[in-house]
Amino acid sequence: MEEEKKLVEVLKANEGAIGWTLSDLKGISPSYCMHRILMQQDYRPMAQPQRRLNPTMKEVVRKEVIKLLEAGMIYPISDSAWVSPVQVVPKKGGMIVVMNDKNELIPTRTVTGWQMCIDYRKLNQATRKDHFPLPFMDQMLERCMLAIFSDVVEKCIEIFMDDFSVFGASFDACLENLNIVLRRCVETNLVLNWEKCHFMVTEGIVLGHKISRKGIEVDPTKVEVISKLPPPTNVKGIRSFLGHAGFYRRFIQDFSKIAKPLSNLLVKDVKFQFDDN
User: Fold this and answer.
1) Same structural domain, 91 and 59
2) Which residues are in coiled coils (predicted)?
3) pTM of the predicted model, to two decimals?
4) Which residue from 40, 46, 49, 270 puts its CA 20 to 30 A from 111's CA?
């Protein structure tokens, strides 16, 4: 209970670092990170027509637009020279193995929801290229995060894109480091999603790996999925299996030698033959 009380005190002292609604997002201070879209000269604006959406997709777009309007993140405009179409895509979940109509086990990716995307390809063509072009938002995120936490990276925090983990050798050390990171978030207007925050845990899944005081281990749920994958019947199946298994190659001694018979099947003009030999 004493440890829980200390954690609550730190969270209350830095309550501005945690966002409960979309309207809590203030925008990161431009002094730390700012992105400009520079246009090429003499490039004519493009107004693209909207593609047809089914009723389910239309509802997803409607809810997303209303949510952004209410949060003040967008506003209506009727005379824009640029118009880009929106598209709705499924959010990918984990991999499971299901049985099809022929009683065959096939790997299937679950769909956990829908996400609205905007097709900015025409805008990208008109954008002046630099080291951080518009399509590579992961580079922008990483540059922004490093600008904010550059002096504490590897000392008390590890960062990957917009995800980070705060660590410490003991509860008090971890709590002190958490306070430093949250205070930095408040100073720079970086707001964290409360639904994705986990505080003072002794182990957890980070980037598909189990992290604990024992070190880095494989995620048992992913291993279970791999073990239940059906035998591949074509080159695509071989490539998919090697992709799944290769994710944990650092934990498998002589992985390249073990996987060589399968890798040989990916060579052009090699006859596909998958059996016990």
Assistant:
1) yes
2) none
3) 0.68
4) 49
